[in-house]
Write a sequence for this structure.
């Protein structure tokens, strides 16, 4: 998990299909794709997941799916990301066993503790700033929010990988990485870029350059 510092999350756009957006991120060097298709019928998510999972295999990339635990098991995807309104992580762990990645969303230190106790492999912590990519956003954390929660984690010896998420642009990466997070997850910055492949490359370069290990 530590080797993976950048997760691209799909989002509906008029410009690209889910498949094409994943392909562009992969072409730019991303090796961790999350298929997130809010409000799409289960069979549509499944059809897209089958195609993107195959593409990820071709690129040697990790492929996880937002929300759909049973689909992850059925297809043999690499894992699932779960938030407050999804299946509890402990239940997902019972269904998936230990060989699947389970990520959990956190906005507070208590959220982190709950997910760690339930067996989460990584935390998606955010939002960093306001974003239209997700409805019903939790309070914005900003740099100080990350520093505070990561400080509490360090004090308690909690070392689960944390990816920052929510409204992050290439210009934010250095500062966000400096807070001590392990990596970055984003969507809109790549989908809005004039050239998503080169945007992905630049983001990966910035993450590498701000390596805090
Ligand atoms: C890496 C990552 N972090 C957070 C989220 C948000 O998940 P959730 O809170 O379940 O909200 P939805 O994405 O389901 O709207 C995520 N998907 N990925
Ligand atoms: C899924 C999710 N969870 C918190 S913010 C967010 C959206 C991230 O997308 P963007 O990078 O476009 O803000
Ligand atoms: Mg969810």
């Amino acid at each position: 998990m530590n080797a993976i510092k950048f997760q691209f999350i799909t989002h509906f756009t008029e410009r690209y299909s889910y498949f094409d957006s994943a392909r562009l991120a992969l072409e730019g060097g991303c090796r961790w794709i999350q298929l997130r298709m809010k409000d799409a019928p289960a069979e549509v998510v499944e059809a897209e997941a089958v195609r993107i999972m195959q593409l990820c295999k071709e690129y040697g990339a990790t492929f996880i799916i937002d929300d759909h635990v049973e689909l992850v098991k059925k297809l043999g995807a690499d894992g699932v990301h779960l938030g407050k309104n999804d299946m509890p992580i402990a239940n997902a762990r019972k269904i998936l066993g230990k060989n699947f990645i389970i990520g959990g969303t956190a906005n507070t230190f208590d959220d982190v503790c709950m997910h760690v106790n339930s067996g989460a492999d990584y935390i998606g912590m955010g939002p960093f700033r306001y974003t239209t990519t997700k409805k019903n956003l939790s309070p914005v954390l900003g740099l100080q929010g990350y520093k505070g929660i990561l400080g509490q984690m360090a004090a308690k010896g909690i070392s689960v990988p944390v990816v920052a998420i929510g409204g992050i642009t290439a210009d934010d990466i250095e500062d966000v990485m400096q807070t001590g997070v392990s990596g970055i997850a984003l969507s809109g910055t790549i989908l809005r870029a004039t050239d998503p492949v080169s945007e992905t490359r630049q983001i990966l370069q910035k993450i590498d350059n701000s390596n805090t290990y």
Remarks:
- Residues 66-67, 82-83, 86 surround magnesium ion (ligand 3) (CB under 6 Å).
- Residues 90 and 118 are 5 Å apart (CA to CA).
- The mean pLDDT is 96.
- Strands lie at 6-9, 32-35, 62-66, 79-82, 101-106, 122-125, 162-165, 183-186.
